[in-house]
Structure formats: structure tokens, C-alpha cells
Amino acid sequence: MKTPIFLDVETAYDRWAASYDAYDNPMVYAATAALERHLERFAGQSVAELGCGTGRNLAALRRASAARLWGCDLSAGMLEKAKHAAPGATLVQHDITLPLRVETGHFDAALVSLAYEHVAKLDEPAAELARIVRPGGFALILEIHPFMTLSGVGAHFPDGDHDIHMPSYPHSFSDWLTAFRHAGLTVSGCTEWRGRDFGPDAPSKLRERYADTPFLVEWSVSR
Ligand SMILES: C[S@@+](CC[C@H](N)C(=O)[O-])C[C@H]1O[C@@H](n2cnc3c(N)ncnc32)[C@H](O)[C@@H]1O
């Protein structure tokens, strides 16, 4: 039995960076499968990923022919990995709860994958997300479903004899809808992914324990 340790988000991800991409994580599997369905939309687009982590999504966007890539993250350790995963992408260390040093309407599209879980309030980050996307552009948001967060599931990882936990906040559907409305974002799609919605190669935990439980929420929004 590993001893649980609770760390702040930046310290936790600096520590997780070395093993994040190798760790068999059903939530990352789910977000990857959900993004896969949308990759074509990013072709030829300039794209920002907020909370880009190790750059695995930036690399996927590059393979999908995104035109220009920009990513930010709180964790220097995660960004160091992203430098190698997504050479040529512009990467900056930045807290997404604070105003971004990016011109208004600078990007065609934006992605946020599994980062808003760590943000207590959605309003400011959603307003910044909307601000940096041009009118007519779009954003895709993939996040742990609030049913999971409310049942005590949040980002965590094994580290030696420890199990590292960090702050994780549930965002109800009214929180999301209010934040989008205040930010001037229009919802064009919402999917609640359950374990059985993923393919046969999905981790068994996802297909069995969470077969009927909304596990991941996917929002498509436009400016
Ligand atoms: C679960 S990882 C997801 C990384 C990547 N988007 C992916 O899908 O693999 C969450 C990332 O969000 C970043 N993050 C959390 N809170 C943040 C904040 N306030 N500002 C910027 N990045 C943040 C973490 O450092 C971490 O890299």
C-alpha cells in the first residue's frame, strides 16, 4: 500500500513529468480517443493548447497538419518534455488562471485537455480561452467528468512508495455553461463519454468498472 502525499499542482506535475507519458492512465486514454475524433478540424489552423503538459497533444496536432502550435503550462518539468515532443511549437510557462500574454484573436483554435480539473473557478480561464481565439474560431475542451471528481477520483500517480495527489475541482454543468456564456462562447457540442463508448483496446478498468459511468466530458465551443 503506497502512502498518499498531497502536493500543489506545479510541484506534482514537475515530479510526474518523467513518467507521465509512460503511465497507463485511463483518463489520458479517454482524452486521446476523444481528441482523435476532432483532429481533422485542426488541419491548417493555428492552435493553442492551454495546459499542454508533455506536448503529446501538440505532437498529435502537428501530425494532423495544424499550421502553427503554441502551448503553455504551469510546470517547467512538463514543458521540458514538450520541447522534445513538439519541436517548433512555441512553449511558455504560464498559469492559465491569469491573463495570457497573447493578442486577442491570435489563434484559429484552442485545446484544453485535462487541465481545468486543477482550476478552482472556470470563469477567468474560459474568458481568456475565448479572447485568444479569433471570431469564427473554435475550442475543444476535454475534462474529467464531474461525476468522477465528486466521487473522489482525481489526477494522481505512483512515485516510489508514495501515491501523489493534487488539487482537483469538480465543475458542474451549470459551472461550464455559465462560464461559456460569460466568455461569449457558443456550445456546439457536448459528449459525455462512458467506459463502454471506447473501443475494445480501451483499458479494462475503463470498460468494466466505468462501463456506464460518465467518465470524460467533451465540449466543443465556438467564438
Ligand atoms: C493531466 S495533465 C494534461 C496535460 C495534457 N493537456 C494532456 O492532455 O496530456 C494537466 C496539465 O495541466 C497543467 N496545469 C494545471 N493547472 C494549470 C494552470 N493553472 N496553468 C497552467 N497549466 C496548468 C499541469 O501542469 C499539467 O501539465
Provide a brief overview of the structure.
This protein has 223 residues and is α/β, with parallel strands linked by helices. The chain contains eight helices and ten strands. Helices cover 30% and strands 29% of the residues.
Give the distinct bound molecules: S-adenosylmethionine
Helix proportion range: 25-40%
Please report the distance between the alpha carbons of the first and last residues.
Answer: 48 Å
Mean pLDDT, as a whole number?
96
Radius of gyration: 16 Å
**Which strand order spans the largest sheet, edge to edge or round the barrel?**
4-3-2-5-6-10-9
- The CATH class, by name, is Alpha Beta
- Report the sheet with the most strands, covering strand number, pairing sense and barrel closure: 7 strands, mixed
Portion in strands: 25-35%
Alpha plus pi helix count: 8
Q: What is the number of independent domains? A: 1
CATH homologous superfamily annotation: Vaccinia Virus protein VP39
CATH topology: Rossmann fold
- Unreliable stretches (pLDDT < 50, length at least 5) are none
CATH architecture: 3-Layer(aba) Sandwich
Give a written overview of the molecule.
Strand 2, helix 3 and strand 3 form a beta-alpha-beta unit. It is globular, with a radius of gyration of 16 Å. The relative contact order is 0.18. The chain is built from eight helices and ten strands. It has a single domain, classed as 3-Layer(aba) Sandwich (Rossmann fold). The model has no long low-confidence stretch (mean pLDDT 96). A seven-stranded mixed sheet has the order 4-3-2-5-6-10-9, sandwiched between helices. It has a three-stranded mixed sheet with strand order 1-8-7, with helices on one face. With 223 residues, the protein is α/β, with parallel strands linked by helices. The chain binds S-adenosylmethionine. S-adenosylmethionine binds next to helix 1, helix 2 and helix 3.
